[in-house]
Amino acid sequence: MGEMLVIRHGQASFGAGDAADYDNLSEQGGRQSELAGAALRAAGWVPDRLVTGTLRRQKETLAAMGFGDDPETHAGLNEYDFYDLLQTRFDGKVPDQVRHDRKTHFRTLREVIYDWQAGGLDGARESWLAFVARVEAARAFAAGGDARRVLVVSSGGVIGQMVAAALDAPARQMVALNLQIKNTSMTRFIFSGDRFTLNEFNATPHFADQTNAAFMTYS
């Protein structure tokens, strides 16, 4: 029986002009990642396989955690392109409030993803079904082989979809899960053969201490 610990990347650059600018850890994100790595080592949890997506913020998170030695990568662990979804929804003219106000951004994003899941947003670079398929391919890749403790660094939408799939939940549940996942939170799965079971969701033991509580973020 194996254990897969999936970490959401540290805080990136919210409000950046495009996906490339967003794809960098903030100073806070780097510190979050250091604390997450320290918490795993303090608990004696040592991975025997490292996997990330291909995004910079995911690789930077793993490196800052102190587990950056030659990870494997799988593009299926990359986040859905929410910049592209919003650009498609607003015909290339995303309102400033949607781009820079967190409450408006995430309320709008929720509705946009519902539309995407229902087959809307014609012209988006990736369909909902393609996203679901690549997340499943990445999950199978990470759970394959002989490793018993697999450390994965991914993103909120991917983690939300993995959890929803493991629970056989409706597609809309992925959105509710996605939007509550904290930066560098830990979601744990147990796997054996075809079995893939959720064991723990969105845990942040590294922020439990009052000294570190201020580092917790959701975006």
| CATH fold group of the largest domain | Rossmann fold
Instruction: List the helices and strands in order.
Output: EHHEHEHHHHEHHEE
Mean pLDDT, to the nearest integer, reads 93
CATH architecture of the largest domain: 3-Layer(aba) Sandwich
Number of strands: 6
What does the overall shape look like? globular
Classify the beta-strand content into a percent band.
15-25%
Taking all Cα atoms into account, the compactness measure Rg is 17 Å
Low-confidence stretches: none
CATH class of the largest domain: Alpha Beta
Give the total of domains: 2
Tally of separate helices: 9
Q: Walk across the major sheet and give the strand order.
A: 3-2-4-1-5-6
> What structural class is derived from the secondary structure elements?
alpha/beta
Oligomer: single chain
